[in-house]
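Here is one such protein, fold included:

. . .
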Amino acid sequence: MKIIIAGAGEVGFHIAERLSEEGHDVSLIDKDAQHVKRVSEGLDVQAFLGSGTSPRMLKQTGILEADLLVAATDSDETNLMTCLMAKSLNPYLIKVARVRNEEYLQEGELFSKDLLGIDHAINPQSEMVNSIQSIMEVPAASEVIDFVGGRIKLIGFFVTEDSPFANRQLLSFSELRGRILVGAIVRGERVVIPRGEDLIRPGDLVYVVVKTTEIDQTLEAIGIKGKTSRRVIIVGGGQTGTALAKRLDQTKINVKIIEKDDAKCGKLSEVLDHVVVINGDGTDKNLLEEENIRDVDFLVAVTADEATNILMSLLAKGLGVKKTITRISRLSYLPLMSAIGIDTVVSPRLSAVKAILQHIRPGKIISVAPLKGEHAEAIEAEALETSDIVNTPLSKVKMPKDAIVGAIVRGEEIIIPRGDSIIRPKDRLFIFSIQEVVPKLEKLLTVKLEYF
């Protein structure tokens, strides 16, 4: 595909890196000379110094021949204008825009074909709040991602010395066959798409596919406590903290939000019914102790300052909080977090990357979630009638070596597959794959007739 990305910040750079490694023809535009230099020196893509709102610049990058435009600058207005310019130059172009201001998103007509013609508007904040809520449903998990409208959960957890998973081969879990499937193992910087003979070790981050209807008994069988969260403290009353507090306001969870700014506290008190608003500093040890941090299930640090978020999370861990969720913006920080004791990380930029990637895949890709370490993906796709993956037992499908089908959804039925399972046309598939074999997987999922 010919893809143009406007914006070479963290999101644009990361998407360009992923797509160029997969063989796509990528051009990137940015007004910042340092960003352009970083791209030119670090990636195998064309980098242009200029603005995506300039018709001349868009033509120079090849907009007339492009298949897709990703507008991913830090300015909503620039992203919207870039899509408008691109629409006028190439009406057949697919346009994906990063839009953070929810006021824009509430104006549905703004994104209509007749006006801006944006095909997909991505709101990182909403995606991030969804992730936080999913994690709270399984407090012992490191990561929880919903697929197929929430009917399947992808749960990532660290294997401890006393875990039923520790030091066992996958093929030894005969009692769990048909209930869960281990789709990926992250060991340090290495990602393994496992086979039956692979051994799970203490310290591994393991991703399993679980049916939501069977989640409690399945988690208990693998040694994960599925206890519901009862007490939550949110630190940071900005957009993300406010959005999360509103989501939790009508639940049975005891929620408090800490914010230093007096004016923000006043506004929070006006829009929240049951959440307790505290005017204070989340890095204040005495305040956290006064709020009985030892009895809190989650401390969610979502201020705009990631260094403060890290400090608060480490302080809360030291004071006995059961779990922390920490907002980090710089993607380069993510691999370091578990090493310094941070439980779970959420990132608006990573949320944007996840949401954008699903609109770039050929075939009927429904959603894509990069896994920790960014070297693997969980992919939700539809099995198309003339693709090579249907009507053949999985053991005989020529799946790429480092890819595995984790679940098959057929109507109301959810199948955790085995070698003799057969995929039918229109089945929803849940697939794990390392990044390097994604292009091969895409070919396997693509309807061949579309390309003749």
Summary: The radius of gyration is 23 Å. The chain has four domains: 2-122, 127-221, 231-346, 353-451.
